[in-house]
Write the structure tokens for this entry.
Amino acid sequence: MQISSSWVLQGQNGIESLKVVDKEIPRPGDHEVLVRIYAASLNHRELAIAKYPESEPVSLREITTGLGQHLDGNLQASTLTCAGLTAWNALLGLEGRGPKKGDAVLVQGTGGVSVIALQFALVCGATIIATTSSDSKAQKLQSLGAHHVLNYRTNPNWGETAKTLTPGQKGCDLVVDVGGLSTLNQSFKAVRPDGVISITGVLGSASDSRSARGIVLGTRRQFKEMNRFVHQHQIRPVVDERVFGYEEAKEAYEYMMAQKHFSKVCVRIEEGSGN
């Protein structure tokens, strides 16, 4: 019997309910694959299920046997299954409405979805308008290729400002909204008539000619399309400069809760080439 340690949520008292336990490594049955995980990127969903019941909680597991092949960029690859796929769906989920050369795309904040959406839209030839809360994060957005960066703390009417930065001041062709009710009003001010607002994780509706669509991850087909796109254009997803070790899972969640991160917070579960 082979044993591995796992971070498991035991209770709903926030991240303090995370405990390390030993578990038997399952044997794969017919038509099953046992996957070794080298790195995991954290999501705000985990913070929610740490307080409220969830039927299938996420756990971080360390496998101690020699299984699988090492791949390049394990930390970066760990961001694609959630943040990457969500961003891909937000930008290209509507057939024929994805960003193209000359379009204006607005991305909000510096979380994982927004940062990789910036990277995707930039490859498509779009002009990128990004929002953030600090000068240091603004510099990082500019280094990634953002054409305009607005500070939403010092400029609460950033939606109107974003509109003035578009050709003919008509508004953005596409807005990736990650704030929901707290940002939707400004998103509507920023988007052009017949433009699209993709609201990640929140379902919404529009009463005028602008389209608002709720985004929750994406499909298997979209995931395959995204991976081909990433490979073709050699896109390297951005992770925060601080990478946490397996034993530091609680500290990683505290870091994310404090909003100290830029893009995705990652935990290195096991050493491997490309980490």
Q: What stands out?
A: The first helix runs from residue 44 to 49.
